[in-house]
Amino acid sequence: MRDRWRPIGVLAGVLFAVNVVARLVTRFAFDEDPVAADRVSLAMFLLIGVILAAVTFTWAQRSAVAQWGGDLAAAVGAAMLATVLVGPLLVGNNPFAGGAGTFFAQLGLYLLATGAGILIGYLIATAIGVDHRSQQLKRYAEGKTAKPRRPVRR
């Protein structure tokens, strides 16, 4: 059971660590410049999307979507909750200081970035033909053509 939850926890930790680094950079380097802070946030969301695209690409090769989809959703959900609720506390802010609009905007942006990364990773794996389903269909087609033709009795 530990082997199943370890990749989920590691992925959630990495996604949260990216957010913490972006928050610390924003806090100490660009505390007074909102444009630079927005650029750091954009870079954070792009990095999260790239990480999830790479993870999705590798997990899509190993097993079916039904197996890794829930694991990926659990990791993203845990990282999102940690990012939105715990992340602001690490830099001395209140998670709800900006109001409900800011809170839900953070959730929406996080879900958009993670969803785009997952979709891009899976679409690339499918387009190249290295995903689990494509490999199954390839093995099936090779098996069907390798069998000799059965004679018909009359």
In short:
The protein has five helices and no strands. It is mostly helical and 154 residues long.
Can you walk me through this structure?
The mean pLDDT is 88. This protein has helices at residues 2-29, 34-62, 65-90, 100-128, 132-146. Helix content is 82%, strand content 0%. The termini are far apart. By secondary structure, it is an all-alpha fold.
Return residue spans where pLDDT drops below 50 for at least 5 consecutive residues.
Answer: none
Count of alpha and pi helical runs: 5
The total beta strand count reads: 0
End-to-end distance, in Å?
57 Å
As a percent range, the share of helical residues equals over 70%
Rough outline: elongated
Structural class: mainly alpha
Approximate strand percentage: under 5%
What Rg, in angstroms, do the CA atoms define?
Answer: 21 Å
Mean pLDDT equals 88
**Biggest sheet layout:** none
Order of helices and strands: HHHHH
Features:
single chain; 154 residues; mainly alpha; 82% helix; 0% strand; elongated
Write the layout of secondary structure elements.
Layout: H1 2-29, H2 34-62, H3 65-90, H4 100-128, H5 132-146
Helix pairs in contact: 1-2, 1-3, 2-4
